[in-house]
């Protein structure tokens, strides 16, 4: 991507926190962990301007195991 009017390459980061499809909790913390680690600042410091566009909303885990190995299988596949 390029910044309009500047022509410089840049990255746009979009978080998608979700625990659906994973039997263990914690995957939803991924986007916040990347922010806490300063990924946007580190990319920019290395010469690739980056912006954080926030999180998108995803399906919530409904608490029902589907087959014993994953959860919310239908929501994850959709």
What report would you give on this structure?
Helix content is 24%, strand content 14%. The longest helix has 7 residues, at 30-36. Strands 1-2 form a two-stranded parallel ribbon. The protein has 78 residues and is α+β, with helices and mostly antiparallel strands. It contains three helices and two strands.
DSSP, total strands = 2
Q: Termini separation (Å)?
A: 28 Å
Based on CA atoms alone, the radius of gyration comes out at: 16 Å
What is the number of helices? 3
Residues in β-strands, percent: 5-15%
- Share of helix, binned: 10-25%
Order of helices and strands: EHHEH
Q: What class do helices, strands and sheet pairing give?
A: alpha+beta
Task: Give the helix/strand layout.
Layout lengths: L10 E5 L14 H7 L2 H7 L4 E6 L17 H5 L1
Parallel strand pairs: 1-2
Quick take:
This protein is of the alpha+beta class and 78 residues long. 24% of the residues lie in helices and 14% in strands.
List keywords for this structure.
78 residues; alpha+beta; two-stranded parallel ribbon; 3 helices; elongated
């Amino acid at each position: 991507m390029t910044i309009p009017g500047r022509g410089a390459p840049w990255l746009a980061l979009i978080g998608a926190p979700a625990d659906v499809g994973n039997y263990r909790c914690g995957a939803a913390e991924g986007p916040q962990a990347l922010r806490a680690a300063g990924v946007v600042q580190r990319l920019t410091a290395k010469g690739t301007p980056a912006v954080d566009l926030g999180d998108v909303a995803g399906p919530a885990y409904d608490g029902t195991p589907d087959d014993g190995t994953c959860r919310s299988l239908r929501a994850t596949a959709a």
